Automatic annotation (TrEMBL):
<dbReference type="InterPro" id="IPR029526">
    <property type="entry name" value="PGBD"/>
</dbReference>
<dbReference type="Pfam" id="PF13843">
    <property type="entry name" value="DDE_Tnp_1_7"/>
</dbReference>
<protein>
    <recommendedName>
        <fullName>PiggyBac transposable element-derived protein domain-containing protein</fullName>
    </recommendedName>
</protein>
<feature type="domain" description="PiggyBac transposable element-derived protein">
    <location>
        <begin position="1"/>
        <end position="247"/>
    </location>
</feature>
Length: 249
């Protein structure tokens, strides 16, 4: 297996159009290393059946039991990377034709991974999207559950989590602030529990309206070319409208 893994690493450095080219006798692909390590048939056999789980111990409904290497990777990253006060969550698409086709994404066929990252963008924890997970809290959204799952080891440490409007919600903000974790993110207009005063406010360009709950959850709306909503648990808010006038030079 060490030889197999070594070949995989070497192939990541030395690129060829197709896998069989590594064992080709053509003068264009005169590689001695793969031939001396193992035959092509042996390599392809290992590649076909190589995974990191015992099929007999698979939990029913767990669609990622053969991808336990992701957990090994996350443990390695957690031990290697030192987090700061600011962290963020987002998703990335990993090209893979064995999964669903998403025409709006650049890769088309791909696997979606949710990632918790450092301020500089290094991945600290990750989770693979496998569809609806019946083990989660079904009263909450999938983005709510995946956020709590990725950050569960960091709750209570006073960190600030930044996110886009796919993840941001008022219930998530309350759940995090109870665990001494702040949230800052853009907020979709169709989310539940947005203060009615903020939702209905008609703003001129440059105007801001914000409202803060007793627990410290602030929902803010700002008008530029269009309305932008932000939710924060580490910024103060008011119920008044503030207009910012542009100063002339």
């Amino acid at each position: 297996m060490k030889q197999f893994i070594g070949l995989l690493g070497w192939m990541g450095i030395v690129k060829v159009p197709e896998l069989p080219n590594y064992w080709s006798k053509s003068k264009l692909f005169s590689f001695d290393l793969p031939k001396n390590v193992m035959s092509r048939n042996r390599f392809e056999l290992l590649l076909r059946f190589w995974h990191f789980a015992n099929n007999g111990e698979a939990i029913p409904g767990n669609r990622t039991h053969k991808l336990d290497i992701s957990e090994i990777y996350s443990k390695f990253q957690k031990a290697r990377i030192r987090l700061g006060e600011k962290i963020c969550i987002d998703e990335t698409m990993v090209p893979f034709r064995g999964r669903e086709y998403i025409p709006t994404k650049g890769h088309g066929y791909s696997i979606k991974r949710y990632k918790l990252c450092t301020e500089k963008g290094h991945t600290w924890n990750a989770s693979i999207y496998v569809g609806r997970d019946l083990t989660n809290d079904l009263t909450q959204t999938a983005s709510h559950n995946v956020t709590l799952k990725l950050i569960e080891d960091l709750l209570g440490e006073g960190r600030t989590l930044y996110m886009d409007n796919f993840y941001t919600s008022v219930p998530l903000a309350y759940d995090l602030i109870k665990q001494k974790t702040h949230l800052v993110g853009t907020l979709r207009f169709n989310r539940k529990y947005i203060p009615q005063e903020v939702k209905d406010a008609k703003l001129v360009k440059g105007a801001i309206i914000a409202k803060e709950s007793p627990e410290g959850v602030t929902v803010l709306k700002w008008r530029d070319k269009r309305d932008v909503q932000i939710l924060s648990t580490c910024h103060l808010g008011t119920e008044t409208v503030v207009t910012r006038n542009k100063q002339k030079d």
